[in-house]
């Protein structure tokens, strides 16, 4: 519990409750007609794209000294702001607020009780002024009590219908097409891809498995405590109203070490919350690739970094520049942001 | 921390600090000459072997109603007493005691201080009379302070040389040949096999990856807390002298849910510490297989169950009988216990 109150920003900490594919073998794939096919078609042909391809081609070439065996090809991706958008607030919050509204029928007292009152009235100003422990407690009550299976089913029903307040499309349509291509390109080259996010583990497992074509055991996130109990109808796990682990900042390398037990060779993030896992990745014997998704496109997405509470990118941007990490400018390096015709 | 003191036996709790293959497609494989090859050659042709094969053939047959998709074929195995022996005490203890002996040079005071005195003198009687918190604290001090990488390297060096006190072979030669074949048979049928043990996660990752041919991300175990820190030489994770999680009893289904996010369809254990994950496995929509390895062979291995502190099997044996789980008698069902010519 103590770790929560060490983190700096209101938003990053809160996220503890939160969070498509094709398939060529290498970037320039020979097609039947002998023409080459681009595995990263939504990336502009910039230096950034070249660095990614050059890295992957190098470490997968057994005749080169930088060759990495397939079992060590671990690639870890942050989720919010790295694989899908995170503005105006983390998408999981919309789910949480919807849940609190749903449960408010059983809690008439919430109408006059903060922070429920602010959530029910959509009063973001009041929410931001709510003391953190109070807000966390409220959210825990709203999100605990179910089995993980039941909770994930609720998340799934929500993600299949809920729409973003300004973009007016489903939240899962706000994934980044270039990142879907990158995930797929890496998998085609025998990288095992993981999501490592401050978002809630069950939220992500309920909403993102099909979106990113990723199995639940390759998703790491923040967790509530759980209990195993015997009921009249059987044996179940129940989500408890108490935080267990915050998968943010130092928590990211700690969780990667615990769950995977290997250091990633590729690490991608977009905020200071990803700095620790980027630093950890950068310090190893294998050739490694650290990447920052920089939100530079105010027209097609949002533009923000050092001054933003959500996706706060300051120290990590400084270190990325100093250490020559790959900094992806969404405006310059991406042909498209979201999938075209992303409907289901 | 509280969970530790809830567990019943001295040994099971302590284990928090603890802790090969061939490949045919199905049991009766057609060989080139048209003869069939047995995937479980070290299993006697008993009802038990038939039940295992019948289960696997059923759930992997797409034309049968019990068919399970490959991504849901999760098989979880306990380690101590299920995949390798655990007598006279859990093998990790020998490593722990060796470590304490090694570090005792820097701690001359240990000669007169319990429980170090008992450990250094090999006084098992005194050890069993040591209050649990005191013993745990002592072991934590001996095993914390390293990076996971350094600790795993120490474990590896130990497992490659240390010998069992009475069997006079290396500890990793005391794995069960029939279980190596079962692991392999399941993998050949697209099951993802996991170890879920009360043993120490880093201990198992240091010693068992090659023995069971299992990647580190498919090993779940008990953990110490860790910290991520920046040192003069880089960014490292350090094992702290504080317990984080005990992967035993209720902790097993809880950890499976957290790390894998799917309920296993096959679960194998040998003691009451495995009961919760066996119960959880038994309660689901998929056809499932619960298995108990029953230590019945006093000549080739050890014979024990209800009265043993190590591998205490009492409630789980009752439920296995009541619910018709598969109970493997090592004496009746296994042709051999340990691998023949298991040297490296």
From TrEMBL, chains A, B:
Pfam family, one: HAD
Keywords for this protein: Amino-acid biosynthesis, Hydrolase, Magnesium, Metal-binding, Serine biosynthesis
Cofactors: Mg(2+)
Superkingdom classification of source: Bacteria
Enzyme class: hydrolase
Enzyme Commission numbers on file: 3.1.3.3
PANTHER family found in the cross-reference section: PHOSPHOSERINE PHOSPHATASE
Protein name: phosphoserine phosphatase
